[in-house]
Design goal:
The chain is α/β, with parallel strands linked by helices and about 375 residues long. It is about 50% helix and about 15% strand. The protein has 14 helices and 11 strands. A 6-stranded mixed beta sheet has the order 3-2-1-4-6-5, with helices on both faces. A 5-stranded antiparallel beta sheet has the order 7-8-11-10-9. Helix 3 links the parallel strand 1 and strand 2. Helix 3 crosses helix 8 and helix 11 crosses helix 13. The protein is globular, with a radius of gyration of 22 Å. It starts with 5 loop residues before the first helix and ends in a 13-residue tail after the last helix. The C terminus is likely disordered.
């Protein structure tokens, strides 16, 4: 959607979303910066024209003395437009990027669910996508990771984010375009000084792109092509999970992965380990690659432990058992709901999510039958 106006890009992105996610109140994450403020204005106008309901959520991380005043300013801006606004203040969160990100998403999910919502909009832009590409490239990501942020994904926190989807309708719009849009409307925004702090890698990548503007177009073009490949790979993963994973009274079981591509097996294995160990991130790196390689080989698998999970081969099935203890019925139900949500993220078919969400149980079709 690059090249479209902010309004046209936003509306096209919303039309592509599952209708069921738009029926409940929609949360808009607003910090007061240009990207999120433009998102809020666009969402507000779209909602007024389409009969939808949106409200704003601001998370005060409590890291800067100005943060509370900035959140209050967002509240006044919302009041001037007749938009409901809530501020969530983080307390007791260690001042680490990963912990703050988790706390932020948990707070956003809680505020969304409190109002009965399922969909959260965030103001990530094409500039953020290009910065993400460079950050992941420096960290050694392959093509799958270089595909970048998804236009629609599930919340990264669990269990707080269960049933919550995140849409990024401005991924095809530049930050410059959004600022021009706000200036044209007579709106001003706040600039977070941490966005200029070179201690953060994203800031360093932003500065690099500012000095080499010609890099942005080929980066975004390459990322877009990787996204197409990722859609194909995600379909393979999802189909494999649906056909080969089940539970019995003892826990999670899967068909042996013999013959799969090692790269594909590693992605499937990462998901299963994450679900079984109830962790928010998947194991990565050489350990996962070695285990996947041993699972796809024709040599007899002798068992292994990785990511807090024991994996054994018994009676022709792979058995996954968390190190934390036996798989009780509650643990198994928890695992199945988690896998269902991850599988929906891999699908991201608007029709499929729409159909699944309208069933009596949101994840009913994907909950395993013993």
């Amino acid at each position: 959607m690059q090249g479209l106006s902010p309004e046209a890009s936003f509306e096209a992105a919303l039309r592509a979303l599952p209708a069921v996610l738009l029926e409940a109140p929609i949360g808009v994450a607003v910090s007061g910066g240009s990207d999120s403020l433009a998102l809020l204005v666009l969402a507000h106008r779209w909602a007024a024209a389409s009969g939808r309901s949106v409200f704003a959520i601001t998370v005060d991380h409590g890291l800067r003395p100005e943060a509370r005043a900035e959140a209050d300013a967002v509240g006044r801006f919302c009041a001037s437009l007749g938009i409901a606004h809530v501020t969530s203040r983080l307390e007791g969160i260690p001042p680490r990027q990963s912990a703050l990100r988790r706390g932020r998403h948990a707070a956003l999910s809680a505020a969304l669910k409190e109002r009965g919502g399922r969909l959260l909009l965030t103001g990530h832009t094409a500039d953020d996508q290009a910065e993400t590409f460079l950050m992941r490239a420096r960290q050694g990501s392959g093509w799958y990771g270089l595909a970048g942020m998804r236009a629609l994904s599930s919340s990264p926190v669990w269990p707080e984010g269960e049933g919550v989807f995140i849409a990024r309708p401005l991924l095809g719009v530049s930050r410059t375009s959004l600022r021009r849009f706000l200036e044209g409307e007579g709106f001003s925004w706040a600039d977070d000084p941490s966005n200029d702090n070179p201690a953060f890698e994203r800031v360093r990548m932003r500065r690099l792109l500012c000095t080499k503007v010609s890099l942005k177009v080929p980066i975004l073009t390459l990322s877009d092509r990787f996204q197409t490949l990722r859609m194909l790979e995600d379909t393979r993963i999802r189909l494999w999970l649906a056909a080969n994973v089940s539970w019995n009274e003892a826990g999670l079981r899967a068909t042996p992965m013999t013959g799969l591509r090692p790269e594909l097996a590693a992605r499937i294995l990462g998901i299963l380990l994450q679900v079984c160990a109830d962790r928010e991130t998947q194991p990565r790196g050489d350990s996962l690659a070695r285990l996947a390689q041993s699972l796809v080989s024709k040599e007899e698998f002798r068992g292994a432990t990785l990511g807090g999970v024991h994996i054994r081969l018994r009676r022709g099935r792979l058995h996954f058992q968390p190190e934390s203890g036996p798989s009780t019925p509650e643990v198994i139900q928890h695992q199945s709901r988690r896998l269902s949500q991850l599988a929906l993220t891999l699908s991201m078919s608007a029709a499929e999510i729409d159909a699944t969400a309208r069933k009596e149980s949101f994840f009913g079709e994907l909950v395993p039958i013993f």
